[in-house]
Amino acid sequence: MRPISFQIEKEFPGTLARAGILKTPHGDIQTPAFISVATKATIKGVSSEQFSDLGVQGIIANTYHLYLVPGEKIVEKAGGVGKFMHFDGPVMTDSGGFQVFSLGAGFGKKLSKFLPEQESAEDAVSIWSEEVASQHGKLAIVDEEGVSFTSHLDGSLHRFTPERSIEIQHALGADIIYAFDECTAPTADHAYQKEAMDRTHEWAKRSLAAHRRNIEKNNSQGIYGIVQGGRFEDLRIKSAREIASMDFDGFGIGGSFSKFDILGILDKVNRELPKEKPRHLLGIGEPEDIFIGVEAGIDTFDCVLPTRNGRTGGIYTEQGKIQLPNAEYKEDLQPLDPQCTCHVCKNFSRAYISHLFRAKEMLGPILASEHNIYFLANLTKRIRNSLLEGTFLQFRDTFLHSYKV
Amino acid sequence: MRPISFQIEKEFPGTLARAGILKTPHGDIQTPAFISVATKATIKGVSSEQFSDLGVQGIIANTYHLYLVPGEKIVEKAGGVGKFMHFDGPVMTDSGGFQVFSLGAGFGKKLSKFLPEQESAEDAVSIWSEEVASQHGKLAIVDEEGVSFTSHLDGSLHRFTPERSIEIQHALGADIIYAFDECTAPTADHAYQKEAMDRTHEWAKRSLAAHRRNIEKNNSQGIYGIVQGGRFEDLRIKSAREIASMDFDGFGIGGSFSKFDILGILDKVNRELPKEKPRHLLGIGEPEDIFIGVEAGIDTFDCVLPTRNGRTGGIYTEQGKIQLPNAEYKEDLQPLDPQCTCHVCKNFSRAYISHLFRAKEMLGPILASEHNIYFLANLTKRIRNSLLEGTFLQFRDTFLHSYKV
Fold it and tell me: What dotted CATH number matches B5-94+161-303?
């Protein structure tokens, strides 16, 4: 019996959309679902005591960040990410691939993807002192075995391999962990993207093997493979086929630095994946994207935007996103979203919360983030209901008609 | 029937300490009580939905800050400070005197307390363009009628008189408002302190008269006079006598920039005040101060330190204040205070919350502030119980024996 299983409740004819139940050791996720981002074992500004009221069914934390601070040993000692942050629902951890490349390397700065030919990976690491790193900027050096990278916090040198990422994720103890992948720069050409993809497939096999070797964790944590291929349709389809052939518990569609690279070919990717296993779209989840994703067969989403927007006063409403600090809301005694039933909209006004932003008070970002999290969680719940009732396309059209992007 | 009344339940023999009930239009405060600081209509980082669980019996907001942002008209339109921030319990507003002088003037910078003799107050204001203010730094110019000052936010010019402060406080709609007072610099000599005190007494009469003229507000808001006199015992006693002779609903002991100016003479001040009316100690309220204050006859306290300490990881415990970000708590799976029963201590560990501080996550300051607020609220509750049970001095000695300052 695998720790992760997925049950399709209803499919929507003519699309890949489905409503389902994703079963994990820490409870079920009713899909489609929005998985809230808790990178450093916290949804930014929101206590886990609020999750249930906000409709948070699951969270996704990050291996790179928790490895650096506070270190996976402390999280393990506390009983895993969930216990550490006092959340007893399902937890995912992303493998750190994306962060190693985006934060460790610093896209657009100095990016060295290849080792000088005369050097082995070990040599490269040993000569790569902090002094060198500080002279040459942040770096991520890929070799066939793994990635050496500098911490975005202090420039210190670290190394991840698929085996190490899995080991850290075993310590972090999430219900669903991810294979370690190589995330390419958005500018990578087809040739390099293919090379990185092939490496990601090798790493997927090694991640899976490392996971299966740990009998104890194998029974309490599931593992998802990650489809790569950047912005190239042929590579995405090839990657989906390869990853689909491995014995993962589910799949993540990853590695996109622009959602427009992937949304248009998502249905083609998902058609290659086994229908009976769950699919997660990594890092994409604005309301308009969720409809596209669900129609293309995605079951779960995660996205930093509800809290990132919330921190600067960007608020999701049925009519679209509004910028709360704008002057027009200064004396507006309506709730953030007059049609919303979350605790923020029940108890506070636009005038009050926009005052908090003007007064630079923390409670502004807190309340805005809480509303936004509820909004996305509730939107996926409504989509799920529309799938169960057979009214998905109708609901989509009605919602998107009034929702101004 | 006055909107504010006070009932003494029990006095502690040999001291001025008493347990009582302060009745307001928005409910009773069981005293001694800690009034939480909500300067800009928010306890920093804490939603009003949490107040009840944290033991918050009442809050104190600030006239100067709310006048500047968002403006008292918006708060009035929202139904007053309490409704604006969704808190239905008792609210106080400080008159803005302290802030006009400390923020508007910027102590230690250029402080001009006297008008040039050749100029009237009106002249002074009219020649005091923003250009002049920007050349000469922030200023607060006192005259017999009131104070002209620059905003600490944008340097714009404003003027408060006792009548204007009361008018703003009527709009803000708190249950208890304060007379407008002059706060002197901590370096003020006896002669200037006396002059300022005499002016404060005149302003107290005018504040009271302005309040009584507004029949409607007179029935829904009570007003406290403020005892001044700086660090001089003779002036403090004189001030207490003068303010005591006016028909206020209660009294604030104010104007202290160092708590050591006032704690030692608090009992002498309070002996001059009518025993049957409530007394509030403005801006002082660390655990050790609260015991001194209660023994000297103070009923309510407010202090920014629970949240200010909380934001930097300073945590109140039965054993004294700890600095949570210190290395020793990194792997400590105990609650913030093992003897505390607040929701933070029930659900989270020192290891987790110190991780949040290291990771620069908002939730760290939020949880630390919530615990600290509960700690102070609960401490005053325990003091109250010890007064009712006749064990006050015993409780004080036991508490202070283990509490390291």
Answer: 3.20.20.105
| Reduced DSSP (H G I as helix, E B as strand, rest coil) percent helix, strand, coil of chain A, to 5 | 45, 20, 35
Q: Which residue, B359, B291, B350, is CA-closest to B315?
A: B350
State the pLDDT at residue A108.
35
Helical residues (DSSP H) of A245-341, grouped into ranges: 266-272, 287-295, 305-311
pLDDT category, A123, cuts 50, 70, 90?
very low
Give the N- to C-terminal CA distance of chain A in Å, as an integer: 44
Find the radius of gyration of the CA atoms of chain A. 21
Beta bridge partners of A61: A93
Domain boundaries, chain B: 5-94+161-303, 312-399
CB atoms within 10 A of CB A319: 12
Beta-strand runs (E) in B311-399: 314-317, 320-323
pLDDT at B256 (0 to 100): 67
A366–B44 C-beta distance less than 8 A: no
Secondary structure class of B138 (helix, strand, coil): coil
Asked if the Cβ–Cβ distance from B362 to A362 is below 8 Å, we say: yes
B87 vs chain A: nearest CA distance in angstroms? Answer: 10
Q: Which among A333, A347, A361 has CB closest to B42?
A: A361
Listed in order, strand segments (DSSP E) in B236-383 are 250-253, 279-281, 300-303, 314-317, 320-323
pLDDT, averaged per 10 consecutive residues of chain B (405 residues), comes to: 96 98 98 98 98 98 97 98 98 92 53 36 38 52 90 88 98 98 86 95 98 95 96 96 98 84 92 98 95 97 97 98 97 98 98 98 98 98 98 98 92
As given in the structure block, the two tokens for residue A190 are 């087809």
Please answer yes or no on whether A331 and B74 come within 8 Å at the CB atom: yes
Instruction: Please tell me the distance from the alpha carbon of residue A398 to that of residue B329, in angstroms, as a whole number.
Output: 52
Which residue has 């803005």 as its token pair? B96
Q: Which of A53, A94, A189, A234 is catalytic?
A: A94
Mutate: best of B51, B352, B354, B371, partner A, most A CBs <10 A:
B352
C-alpha span between B217 and B169 (Å, rounded): 10
Q: What angle do CA B389, B392, B393 make, to 5 degrees?
A: 140
CA torsion angle A405 A381 B366 B381 (round to 10) = 140
- Over residues A104-115, mean pLDDT: 39
In terms of Cα–Cα distance, which of B193, B167, B190, B195 is closest to B180? Answer: B167
Provide the token pair at A332.
Answer: 């507006």
Q: Is B86 on the interface with A (CB under 8 A)?
A: yes
B351 closest CB neighbour out of A74, A361, A366: A74
CATH for A30-96+162-303?
Answer: 3.20.20.105
Q: How far apart are CA A334 and CA A345, in angstroms?
A: 8
Burial class (CB in 10 A: 0-12, 13-18, 19+), B39: buried
pLDDT digits (tens, 9 = 90+) for B103-151: 765 433 333 333 333 334 343 333 333 444 444 455 788 899 999 988 8
pLDDT of residue B183: 86
Nearest chain B alpha carbon to A71 = B355
